[in-house]
């Protein structure tokens, strides 16, 4: 495709995405379905430029004020993530001159919000929690793309063997530092045609997600519930940890999400998983299982703000009001899920949010209202699950993962044991 045509196409995609009325990944996928003849490199440039503009929207909008022509084209030029020579081929002499001027500007004197590129309602609590230096490091890490992590399905293969298979296929990878199941891939190679993937030997899963499953420490023969199973990323990890024995109920209110678990389940070779759509957190099925379950994971619906490297549109689409509504939901789901546990059973509450409001605040309110649940320090639980350097993943007894410190998505988890 001619460079100018691709640049105009990127501007068209940006126009749709910047309306912020649907998730960016859904808009990008629909755009690719509509434009089937785009090559791999063109798709990469379109998607990555879109994400780069979303990540740095305030800064790029500020810088784009000086140019001329359609605003989205200017943003696409400033955020361009494809080949630089290719971009030059798309620019008019005036655009090239403007780009050179913008690139030469000293940006160090710009106001703080043009550096962190976060809305004020989000920047403020993060800065208060982390302090200036850590906050800057976090904001910078959110401007990077996330690495590609895999979880080895230990039912089918060993981590060393999966690593060797990847190497033979010309894919560079290394063991993840914390999760004993994890591999971190260099770059973004296509994996979906590899036997290792189609045969269920590995699943794509952020190392942080793997650590949440490890925290539950589900064992052979147990009765386990994944209360908010969604498309089953953690369900599959738990099922393998249980060595395909016992019973693992995968609950979710979304039939659509549970349906996405089916092909992954087929690849995994697991037969101990029972997906079940529930109407709400007080569904009859939950009452029937009350007091019978060994371990319950509540991977609660949340703002998703720990995943900004993958979903940068969330910082512009989320609102404080939506988070207040989520908090009420999180408390209600946790209280209801807790009723499932046997005496001595383990409860894990987790989110992929960075905000205390969805994390510590929910865990502490639950703890205060449920004296029969005793907090279990996350570091201890992770150590027992063979997680390396577990002490560095914990704050105030809770699991707290940060993109800038741990190279994972942002995650929180609290653990309790029901009194015997
Ligand atoms: C963070 S996502 C789960 C991701 C999933 N555990 C994984 O690892 O792939 C939260 C899930 O909670 C589900 N959910 C929302 N309200 C719920 C409720 N009242 N009871 C159970 N699940 C609920 C959503 O449909 C969503 O799939």
TrEMBL record:
EC number: 2.1.1.-
Domain of life: Bacteria
Broad enzyme group: transferase
Residues that hold S-adenosyl-L-methionine according to the record: 252, 299
A GO biological-process term: methylation
InterPro entries assigned: MeTrfase_RsmB-F_NOP2_cat, MeTrfase_RsmB-F_NOP2_dom, RCMT, RsmB-like_ferredoxin, SAM-dependent_MTases_sf
SUPFAM superfamilies: S-adenosyl-L-methionine-dependent methyltransferases (SSF53335)
Coiled coil: none
Transferase listed as a keyword: yes
Keyword Manganese among record annotations: no
Active-site residue list: 352 (nucleophile)
Sequence ranges assigned to domain SAM-dependent MTase RsmB/NOP-type in this UniProt record: 138-419
Record key words, sorted: Methyltransferase, RNA-binding, S-adenosyl-L-methionine, Transferase
One Gene Ontology MF term: methyltransferase activity
Pfam families: Methyltr_RsmB-F, RsmF-B_ferredox
PANTHER family: NOP2 YEAST -RELATED NOL1/NOP2/FMU SUN DOMAIN-CONTAINING, RIBOSOMAL RNA SMALL SUBUNIT METHYLTRANSFERASE B-RELATED
Family: Belongs to the class I-like SAM-binding methyltransferase superfamily. RsmB/NOP family.
Protein name: RsmB/NOP family class I SAM-dependent RNA methyltransferase
């Amino acid at each position: 495709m001619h460079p100018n045509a691709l640049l105009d196409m990127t501007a068209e995609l940006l126009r749709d995405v910047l309306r912020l009325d649907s998730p960016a990944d859904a808009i990008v996928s629909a755009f690719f379905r509509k434009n089937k003849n785009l090559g791999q490199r063109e798709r990469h440039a379109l998607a990555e430029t879109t994400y780069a503009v979303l990540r740095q929207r305030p800064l790029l909008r500020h810088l784009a004020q000086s140019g001329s022509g359609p605003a989205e084209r200017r943003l696409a030029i400033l955020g361009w993530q494809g080949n630089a020579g290719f971009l030059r081929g798309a620019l008019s002499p005036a655009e090239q001159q403007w780009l050179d001027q913008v690139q030469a500007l000293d940006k160090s004197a710009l106001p703080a919000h043009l550096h962190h590129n976060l809305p004020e309602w989000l920047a403020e609590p993060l800065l208060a929690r982390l302090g200036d230096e850590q906050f800057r490091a976090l904001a910078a890490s959110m401007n990077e793309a996330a690495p590609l992590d895999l979880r080895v399905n230990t039912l089918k293969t060993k981590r060393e063997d999966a690593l060797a298979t990847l190497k033979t296929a010309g894919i560079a990878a290394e063991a993840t530092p914390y999760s004993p199941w994890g591999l971190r891939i260099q770059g973004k190679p296509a994996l979906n045609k590899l036997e290792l993937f189609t045969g269920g030997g590995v699943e794509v899963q952020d190392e942080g997600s793997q650590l949440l499953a490890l925290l539950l420490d589900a064992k052979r023969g147990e009765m386990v519930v994944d209360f908010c199973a969604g498309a089953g990323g953690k369900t599959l990890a738990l099922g393998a940890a249980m060595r395909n024995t016992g019973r693992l109920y995968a609950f979710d209110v979304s039939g659509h999400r549970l349906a996405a678990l089916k092909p992954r389940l087929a690849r995994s070779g697991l037969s101990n998983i029972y997906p079940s759509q529930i109407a709400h957190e007080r569904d009859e099925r939950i009452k029937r299982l009350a007091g019978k379950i060994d371990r319950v994971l509540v991977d609660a619906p949340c703002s998703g703000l720990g995943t900004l490297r993958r979903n940068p549109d969330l910082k512009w689409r989320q609102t404080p009001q939506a988070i207040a509504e989520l908090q009420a939901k999180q408390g209600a789901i946790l209280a209801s899920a807790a009723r499932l546990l046997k005496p001595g059973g383990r409860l894990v509450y987790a989110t992929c949010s960075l905000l205390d409001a969805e994390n510590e605040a929910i865990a502490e309110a639950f703890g205060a209202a449920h004296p029969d649940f005793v907090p279990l320090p996350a570091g201890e639980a992770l150590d027992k699950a063979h997680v390396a350097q577990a002490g560095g993943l914990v704050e105030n007894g809770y699991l707290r993962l940060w993109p800038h410190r741990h190279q994972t998505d942002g995650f929180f988890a609290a653990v309790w044991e029901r009194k015997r």
